[in-house]
Amino acid sequence: MNPDATDRTILRLLQSNSQLTIKEIASRINLSITPVHDRIRKLEREGFIDRYVALLNRRKLGKSLIVFCNVTLDKQRKESFEEFNETVARLPEVLECSVVSGNFDYLLKVVADDVEGYNTFYQQNLSVLKSVLHISSFFVMSEVKSTTELPI
Amino acid sequence: MNPDATDRTILRLLQSNSQLTIKEIASRINLSITPVHDRIRKLEREGFIDRYVALLNRRKLGKSLIVFCNVTLDKQRKESFEEFNETVARLPEVLECSVVSGNFDYLLKVVADDVEGYNTFYQQNLSVLKSVLHISSFFVMSEVKSTTELPI
DNA sequence: GTTGAAACCGGTTGTCT
DNA sequence: AGACAACCGGTTTCAAC
């Protein structure tokens, strides 16, 4: 059930590069192919690995801007949260959306081509929502670090 | 140089599931294996695909808490930014770090086991930095959406 | 957990249209 | 640029230790 040190090493390798062959992993951790193969399948089966994905290059694809925005909902309306969650889940520009503690309700991470593109998205998809009371946008000026690798 | 509609379809498929075989992709877009193979290699070579990774399940690995924190630096010290950037890049608990517009300087996304674990991380790694003037932490209470898939 | 073998399948390459 | 065919290498499953 719980991954041992060997399992965690395998997970660490795979979350850094999922194209490593079983052979390569096996040689790095001084095991033969069979147990490495079985461990990976087990980690997948048990849900330690959610999925395998390709990470694309934002800038190459014209998505040069990231904006974080704080959203406060109109809490008088009890449908607000459900409505907002469903809307946001459908918007492909929203990469992340979290309910957070503190002064506002949501923190969103949005990608856009540029400031103008973000403005269009904002006007057409966020500001029109009845459930939304207030939004503050923070533009990312420099991405110091961005990783999907968990510390394990 | 610029990906056409077919390339973008391939990218869309790969960023959703990088384990799709060339065969499967080919049949979905009504092409034979060869052009799909060549296009993927080209997209990799030209940097549209940054890397292939396994996305692990945070909760399964005991990393149940995500905290966003706003950090304001002591701008009197001109070494502050460099110092902070380098420190943060080395901290595995920090998944993302961005310089943002607005009232504070940085927005960090941090993972921890729990509130206590975050407190330890905070005390030992963030609050001790001379470059840091102020930090506000926002705990994620619910993750509505989290994806690595860009809208393309 | 290791080794070795065998079948299978996808990736890779060359050639042709 | 796409289709077809042949080869190579990794994956998968098995047996035996």
Can you walk me through this structure?
Two copies of one chain form a homodimer. Chain A contains five helices and five strands. With 152 residues, the first copy, chain A, is of the alpha+beta class. The first copy, chain A, folds into two domains: 41 residues, Arc Repressor Mutant, subunit A (Orthogonal Bundle), CATH 1.10.10; 75 residues, Lrp/AsnC effector binding domain/regulation of amino acid metabolism (RAM) domain (Alpha-Beta Plaits, 2-Layer Sandwich), CATH 3.30.70. Chain A starts with a helix and ends in a 6-residue tail after the last strand. The mean pLDDT of chain A is 96. At the A-B interface, helix 1, strand 1, helix 4, strand 3 and strand 4 of A face helix 1, strand 1, helix 4, strand 3 and strand 4 of B. Chain A binds a DNA duplex (17 and 17 nucleotides) through helix 3.
Summarize the structure.
Chains A, B: It comes from Salmonirosea aquatica. The structure is a homodimer of 152-residue chains. With 152 residues, chain A is an alpha+beta fold.
Features:
transcription regulation (chains A, B); transcription (chains A, B); Alpha-Beta Plaits; DNA-binding; 4-stranded antiparallel β-sheet; 2 domains; 30% strand; Winged helix-turn-helix transcriptional regulator (chains A, B); 5 helices; AsnC-type_HTH_dom (chains A, B); 152 residues; homodimer; 36% helix; Arc Repressor Mutant, subunit A; alpha+beta; WH-like_DNA-bd_sf (chains A, B)
